[in-house]
Protein backbone atom coordinates (compact mmCIF):
# COMPACT_ATOMS: atom_id res chain seq x y z
CA UNK A 1 0.00 0.00 0.00
CA UNK A 2 1.38 3.40 -0.99
CA UNK A 3 1.68 5.83 1.92
CA UNK A 4 0.15 9.29 1.44
CA UNK A 5 0.93 10.30 5.03
CA UNK A 6 3.60 8.75 7.25
CA UNK A 7 3.93 9.14 11.03
CA UNK A 8 6.09 7.53 13.69
CA UNK A 9 4.00 5.70 16.28
CA UNK A 10 3.49 7.95 19.30
CA UNK A 11 3.84 11.16 17.28
CA UNK A 12 1.13 13.41 15.85
CA UNK A 13 -0.11 13.19 12.26
CA UNK A 14 -2.06 15.55 10.01
CA UNK A 15 -4.18 13.99 7.26
CA UNK A 16 -4.77 16.81 4.74
CA UNK A 17 -8.24 17.57 3.42
CA UNK A 18 -6.95 19.55 0.44
CA UNK A 19 -10.13 21.55 -0.19
CA UNK A 20 -9.08 25.12 -1.02
CA UNK A 21 -12.58 26.59 -0.55
CA UNK A 22 -13.09 25.11 2.92
CA UNK A 23 -14.72 27.23 5.62
CA UNK A 24 -15.59 26.28 9.22
CA UNK A 25 -19.26 26.40 8.19
CA UNK A 26 -18.84 23.45 5.82
CA UNK A 27 -20.42 20.15 6.81
CA UNK A 28 -17.47 17.78 7.26
CA UNK A 29 -17.08 14.04 7.78
CA UNK A 30 -13.89 12.04 8.36
CA UNK A 31 -13.82 8.23 8.25
CA UNK A 32 -11.15 5.62 8.94
CA UNK A 33 -11.51 2.44 6.93
CA UNK A 34 -15.13 3.38 6.30
CA UNK A 35 -16.04 4.04 9.95
CA UNK A 36 -17.06 7.62 10.82
CA UNK A 37 -14.77 9.21 13.42
CA UNK A 38 -15.64 12.91 12.99
CA UNK A 39 -18.91 14.51 11.90
CA UNK A 40 -19.76 18.21 11.91
CA UNK A 41 -23.19 19.23 10.63
CA UNK A 42 -24.41 22.83 10.39
CA UNK A 43 -21.71 24.01 12.79
CA UNK A 44 -22.38 21.35 15.43
CA UNK A 45 -19.93 18.53 16.10
CA UNK A 46 -21.98 15.35 16.26
CA UNK A 47 -19.06 12.94 16.60
CA UNK A 48 -15.54 13.71 17.81
CA UNK A 49 -14.47 17.16 19.00
CA UNK A 50 -13.47 20.48 17.45
CA UNK A 51 -9.76 19.86 18.09
CA UNK A 52 -9.87 16.81 15.81
CA UNK A 53 -9.64 19.04 12.73
CA UNK A 54 -7.61 22.11 11.78
CA UNK A 55 -8.98 25.41 10.52
CA UNK A 56 -8.67 24.10 6.94
CA UNK A 57 -10.52 20.85 7.69
CA UNK A 58 -7.51 18.53 7.88
CA UNK A 59 -7.69 15.68 10.38
CA UNK A 60 -5.49 15.80 13.49
CA UNK A 61 -4.31 12.55 15.09
CA UNK A 62 -2.39 12.77 18.36
CA UNK A 63 -0.21 10.00 19.81
CA UNK A 64 -0.75 7.85 16.72
CA UNK A 65 -1.09 4.12 17.33
CA UNK A 66 0.03 1.39 14.97
CA UNK A 67 -3.53 0.06 14.78
CA UNK A 68 -4.66 3.46 13.43
CA UNK A 69 -2.87 2.77 10.16
CA UNK A 70 -5.26 2.68 7.23
CA UNK A 71 -7.32 4.71 4.77
CA UNK A 72 -8.76 8.02 5.90
CA UNK A 73 -11.47 9.67 3.81
CA UNK A 74 -12.69 13.23 4.15
CA UNK A 75 -15.98 14.47 2.76
CA UNK A 76 -17.49 17.95 2.40
CA UNK A 77 -21.27 17.87 2.16
CA UNK A 78 -24.08 20.20 1.23
CA UNK A 79 -26.80 18.67 3.34
CA UNK A 80 -26.79 15.01 2.33
CA UNK A 81 -25.00 15.66 -0.99
CA UNK A 82 -21.20 15.23 -1.12
CA UNK A 83 -19.48 18.10 -2.95
CA UNK A 84 -15.86 17.04 -2.31
CA UNK A 85 -14.15 13.82 -1.23
CA UNK A 86 -10.57 12.77 -0.65
CA UNK A 87 -8.85 9.60 0.54
CA UNK A 88 -5.37 9.29 2.08
CA UNK A 89 -3.56 6.20 3.36
CA UNK A 90 -1.75 6.68 6.66
CA UNK A 91 1.30 4.53 7.38
CA UNK A 92 2.51 4.29 10.99
CA UNK A 93 6.18 3.39 11.30
CA UNK A 94 8.36 2.16 14.15
CA UNK A 95 10.30 4.54 16.38
CA UNK A 96 14.06 4.05 16.05
CA UNK A 97 15.83 3.49 19.36
CA UNK A 98 19.51 3.04 20.14
CA UNK A 99 20.99 1.47 23.25
CA UNK A 100 24.51 0.74 24.44
CA UNK A 101 25.55 -2.83 25.07
CA UNK A 102 25.38 -3.87 28.77
CA UNK A 103 23.27 -0.79 29.62
CA UNK A 104 19.47 -0.32 29.73
CA UNK A 105 16.88 1.12 27.36
CA UNK A 106 13.39 2.54 28.00
CA UNK A 107 10.54 1.61 25.65
CA UNK A 108 7.72 4.08 26.34
CA UNK A 109 4.33 3.32 24.72
CA UNK A 110 2.90 6.75 25.70
CA UNK A 111 -0.26 5.14 27.03
CA UNK A 112 -3.16 7.59 27.40
CA UNK A 113 -5.63 5.24 29.11
CA UNK A 114 -5.89 3.01 32.18
CA UNK A 115 -4.07 -0.25 31.55
CA UNK A 116 -6.09 -3.40 32.12
CA UNK A 117 -3.98 -5.67 29.95
CA UNK A 118 -0.60 -5.09 28.33
CA UNK A 119 1.53 -7.33 26.14
CA UNK A 120 5.06 -6.63 24.94
CA UNK A 121 6.45 -8.66 22.05
CA UNK A 122 9.79 -8.92 20.27
CA UNK A 123 9.51 -10.17 16.71
CA UNK A 124 6.02 -11.51 17.57
CA UNK A 125 7.27 -13.49 20.60
CA UNK A 126 5.86 -12.41 23.97
CA UNK A 127 8.45 -11.12 26.43
CA UNK A 128 6.14 -9.54 29.05
CA UNK A 129 2.38 -9.84 29.63
CA UNK A 130 0.23 -8.57 32.49
CA UNK A 131 -3.53 -8.45 33.19
CA UNK A 132 -4.97 -6.28 36.01
CA UNK A 133 -1.57 -6.09 37.70
CA UNK A 134 -0.83 -9.81 37.50
CA UNK A 135 1.81 -11.43 35.33
CA UNK A 136 0.42 -14.07 32.96
CA UNK A 137 3.76 -15.78 32.60
CA UNK A 138 7.51 -15.42 32.92
CA UNK A 139 9.37 -15.30 29.65
CA UNK A 140 13.14 -15.81 29.18
CA UNK A 141 14.09 -12.18 28.38
CA UNK A 142 12.03 -10.74 31.24
CA UNK A 143 12.15 -13.50 33.83
CA UNK A 144 13.27 -11.23 36.68
CA UNK A 145 13.54 -7.58 37.71
CA UNK A 146 17.27 -7.78 37.01
CA UNK A 147 16.38 -8.25 33.33
CA UNK A 148 13.26 -6.10 32.82
CA UNK A 149 11.06 -3.66 34.69
CA UNK A 150 7.48 -2.94 33.55
CA UNK A 151 5.64 0.14 34.82
CA UNK A 152 2.00 -0.95 35.03
CA UNK A 153 0.77 2.66 35.13
CA UNK A 154 2.58 4.01 32.07
CA UNK A 155 3.22 0.71 30.28
CA UNK A 156 6.89 1.60 29.87
CA UNK A 157 9.30 -1.32 29.66
CA UNK A 158 12.96 -1.11 30.69
CA UNK A 159 15.32 -3.70 29.20
CA UNK A 160 18.45 -4.12 31.31
CA UNK A 161 21.87 -5.43 30.39
CA UNK A 162 21.44 -5.07 26.63
CA UNK A 163 22.98 -7.75 24.43
CA UNK A 164 23.39 -7.91 20.64
CA UNK A 165 20.51 -10.40 20.44
CA UNK A 166 18.17 -7.77 21.91
CA UNK A 167 18.18 -5.97 18.56
CA UNK A 168 14.94 -6.11 16.62
CA UNK A 169 11.36 -4.90 16.47
CA UNK A 170 9.30 -4.52 19.65
CA UNK A 171 5.54 -3.98 19.75
CA UNK A 172 3.13 -3.25 22.58
CA UNK A 173 -0.60 -4.02 22.74
CA UNK A 174 -2.75 -2.29 25.36
CA UNK A 175 -6.23 -3.46 26.37
CA UNK A 176 -6.52 -5.77 23.33
CA UNK A 177 -6.89 -2.82 20.93
CA UNK A 178 -4.22 -3.95 18.53
CA UNK A 179 -0.59 -2.96 18.36
CA UNK A 180 -0.23 0.54 19.77
CA UNK A 181 3.44 1.28 19.16
CA UNK A 182 6.43 -0.25 17.43
CA UNK A 183 10.10 0.24 18.19
CA UNK A 184 13.15 -0.84 16.22
CA UNK A 185 16.05 -1.27 18.64
CA UNK A 186 19.69 -1.17 17.60
CA UNK A 187 22.30 -2.18 20.17
CA UNK A 188 25.57 -0.29 19.81
CA UNK A 189 29.06 -0.59 21.21
CA UNK A 190 30.92 2.57 22.34
CA UNK A 191 33.01 4.05 19.55
CA UNK A 192 36.75 3.57 19.60
CA UNK A 193 39.44 6.20 19.86
CA UNK A 194 40.05 7.49 16.34
CA UNK A 195 43.46 7.96 14.81
CA UNK A 196 44.05 11.08 12.75
CA UNK A 197 46.86 11.52 10.23
CA UNK A 198 47.86 14.63 8.29
CA UNK A 199 49.44 14.78 4.85
CA UNK A 200 50.73 18.28 4.11
CA UNK A 201 52.62 20.44 1.67
CA UNK A 202 53.66 24.04 2.27
CA UNK A 203 50.12 25.47 1.98
CA UNK A 204 47.59 22.65 2.36
CA UNK A 205 46.91 19.60 4.54
CA UNK A 206 44.60 16.61 4.19
CA UNK A 207 43.45 15.37 7.59
CA UNK A 208 42.14 11.80 7.81
CA UNK A 209 40.26 10.43 10.81
CA UNK A 210 39.83 6.66 11.27
CA UNK A 211 37.95 4.76 13.98
CA UNK A 212 37.11 1.10 14.30
CA UNK A 213 34.08 0.27 12.17
CA UNK A 214 30.83 0.10 14.12
CA UNK A 215 27.14 0.47 13.34
CA UNK A 216 25.66 3.94 12.86
CA UNK A 217 29.01 5.71 13.33
CA UNK A 218 29.76 9.05 11.70
CA UNK A 219 32.64 11.50 11.43
CA UNK A 220 32.60 15.26 11.82
CA UNK A 221 35.19 18.00 12.19
CA UNK A 222 35.67 21.09 14.30
CA UNK A 223 37.57 24.27 13.48
CA UNK A 224 38.31 25.88 16.81
CA UNK A 225 35.06 25.17 18.71
CA UNK A 226 32.72 25.27 15.71
CA UNK A 227 31.56 22.29 13.68
CA UNK A 228 32.76 22.48 10.09
CA UNK A 229 29.65 22.56 7.89
CA UNK A 230 29.11 20.88 4.53
CA UNK A 231 31.84 18.32 5.20
CA UNK A 232 30.91 14.64 5.17
CA UNK A 233 33.18 11.69 5.78
CA UNK A 234 36.47 11.19 7.53
CA UNK A 235 38.70 13.60 5.56
CA UNK A 236 39.12 17.36 5.82
CA UNK A 237 41.12 19.67 3.55
CA UNK A 238 42.62 22.68 5.34
CA UNK A 239 44.45 25.66 3.85
CA UNK A 240 47.25 27.57 5.52
CA UNK A 241 45.74 30.83 6.79
CA UNK A 242 48.53 32.36 8.80
CA UNK A 243 46.61 31.97 12.07
CA UNK A 244 48.98 29.64 13.86
CA UNK A 245 46.56 29.11 16.75
CA UNK A 246 43.66 27.87 14.59
CA UNK A 247 42.68 24.41 15.86
CA UNK A 248 41.26 21.35 14.10
CA UNK A 249 39.81 18.25 15.71
CA UNK A 250 37.89 15.15 14.64
CA UNK A 251 34.71 13.75 16.24
CA UNK A 252 33.87 10.06 15.84
CA UNK A 253 30.43 9.18 17.17
CA UNK A 254 27.31 7.04 17.05
CA UNK A 255 23.90 7.90 18.55
CA UNK A 256 24.99 6.78 22.03
CA UNK A 257 28.71 7.58 22.32
CA UNK A 258 31.39 9.81 20.90
CA UNK A 259 35.06 10.67 21.11
CA UNK A 260 36.86 13.83 20.06
CA UNK A 261 40.53 14.16 19.24
CA UNK A 262 42.89 16.54 20.92
CA UNK A 263 43.18 19.68 18.79
CA UNK A 264 45.86 20.08 16.16
CA UNK A 265 46.89 23.67 15.47
CA UNK A 266 47.99 25.26 12.24
CA UNK A 267 51.38 25.63 13.87
CA UNK A 268 51.52 21.84 14.33
CA UNK A 269 50.56 21.26 10.71
CA UNK A 270 52.76 23.75 8.89
CA UNK A 271 55.69 24.32 11.23
CA UNK A 272 56.07 20.82 12.63
CA UNK A 273 58.85 18.49 11.65
CA UNK A 274 56.56 15.59 10.73
CA UNK A 275 53.64 15.39 8.30
CA UNK A 276 51.89 12.56 10.17
CA UNK A 277 50.19 12.95 13.53
CA UNK A 278 48.18 10.79 15.94
CA UNK A 279 45.66 12.15 18.43
CA UNK A 280 44.84 11.15 22.00
CA UNK A 281 41.05 11.23 22.26
CA UNK A 282 38.57 11.97 25.00
CA UNK A 283 34.92 10.97 25.38
CA UNK A 284 32.15 13.43 24.52
CA UNK A 285 29.74 11.59 26.79
CA UNK A 286 31.73 11.43 30.04
From TrEMBL:
Compartments it resides in: Membrane
Ig-like domain residues: 190-265
GO cellular component, one term: membrane
Keywords, alphabetical: Glycoprotein, Membrane, Signal
PROSITE patterns registered for this protein in UniProt: IG_LIKE
Principal cellular location given in the protein's record: membrane
Protein name: Ig-like domain-containing protein
Organism: Scleropages formosus
Amino acid sequence: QQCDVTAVSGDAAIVPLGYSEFTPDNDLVWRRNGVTMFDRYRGTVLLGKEGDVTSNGSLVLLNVKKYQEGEYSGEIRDGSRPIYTTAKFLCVTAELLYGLIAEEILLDPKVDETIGRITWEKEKEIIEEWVTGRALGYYPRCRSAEQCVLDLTTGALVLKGLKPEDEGKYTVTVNNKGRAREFTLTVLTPVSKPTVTASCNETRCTLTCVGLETKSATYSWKENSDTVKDVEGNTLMVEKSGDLHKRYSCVFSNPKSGKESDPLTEMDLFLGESSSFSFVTSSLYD
